[in-house]
Amino acid sequence: xxxxxxxxxxxxxxxxxxxxxxxxxxxxxxxxxxxxxxxxxxxxxxxxxxxxxxxxxxxxxxxxxxxxxxxxxxxxxxxxxxxxxxxxxxxxxxxxxxxxxxxxxxxxxxxxxxxxxxxxxxxxxxxxxxxxxxxxxxxxxxxxxxxxxxxxxxxxxxxxxxxxxxxxxxxxxxxxxxxxxxxxxxxxxxxxxxxxxxxxxxxxxxxxxxxxxxxxxxxxxxxxxxxxxxxxxxxxxxxxxxxxxxxxxxxxxxxxxxxxxxxxxxxxxxxxxxxxxxxxxxxxxxxxxxxxxxxxxxxxxxxxxxxxxxxxxxxxxxxxxxxxxxxxxxxxxxxxxxxxxxxxxxxxxxxxxxxxxxxxxxxxxxxxxxxxxxxxxxxxxxxxxxxxxxxxxxxxxxxxxxxxx
Length: 405
Known about the structure:
Layout: H1 9-19, H2 22-31, H3 33-36, H4 38-81, E1 91-94, H5 113-121, E2 126-129, H6 147-162, E3 166-170, H7 175-179, H8 181-198, E4 206-209, H9 220-237, E5 243-246, H10 248-251, E6 267-273, H11 277-280, H12 302-322, E7 326-331, H13 339-355, E8 359-362, E9 372-373, E10 378-379, H14 381-387, E11 391-394, E12 400-403
Parallel strand pairs: 1-2, 1-8, 2-3, 3-4, 4-5, 5-6, 6-7, 7-8
Antiparallel strand pairs: 9-10, 11-12
């Protein structure tokens, strides 16, 4: 009975007594005080046993409750780790190779008003308009933007807003800034002073993006300081307008960790996604050695999908820590890639972004990555449905055609 040394002595006696033979029990009942009082103590013993059992059951209940509490807390923390505010930009598309060319039309695209009808009709909610402002300013302080170019941008913005589209304008291809940031920072600031003053009265659907893909000599330390300066300039005339900001290293996800944002309730963080690069940029004329990648496919294997989901999860964790919405401002695969692979990659990436509340804009509308054939006035339905499933399109004869992903 040594195992019962921590149990109430009355319980121990009754257990030991019960294990004895009937004759021994009767003799002991006569000889011992305990035995004589056995009947009297039976009720008391039962109460003690019940009390001890209740203590054990209470302890078990507390342990279970604590376990459930910690499990719920763990799940909640993990959930919060992957929860981010929504940018509410919706599905968008870039009007690339137009206003960010040295001169509009030089790269084959001139933005037409009917583009916005096409974009709106198939279900896009936003357009991102890359703009090379730096090619349209005076060469000296205060770097005045050419008025005719400004009016051209006005027209494009108004055409998009008239279709109730969210409109994102940025500074694109400011190559001199990337090469020598300190020599060109004042030009950057002056360009934004003019933009923010000109569009201060425009609807909230107009959104500013500070700079496309900071890189090279524009380090994270410099860029983080530039962000502070630029937001001060913008907030003078646009105190509540949404502003999109990306990281160095070409707006990469890996660059997000070095991005430090000021306290501002109207910021959206952006990243661009072109991984695997040897797939999305195979045969791209501006990428040295890319012809050797021709024939690279994307089959949607578990390993290939895991790379994408892990990257997106990393971006979401960063955004959750910083309590900021995410916008995948560019993604796409060049036309020289295997077509079916382009569809698979585009569909998977778009859906995975949406699962994580990441708004996006596909790169781009009608050029090398494009999904619209301007010359023949028709959508690439395979890619379009990869981006926006179950799109209904009316052809030139007004007969409805639907294709699903």
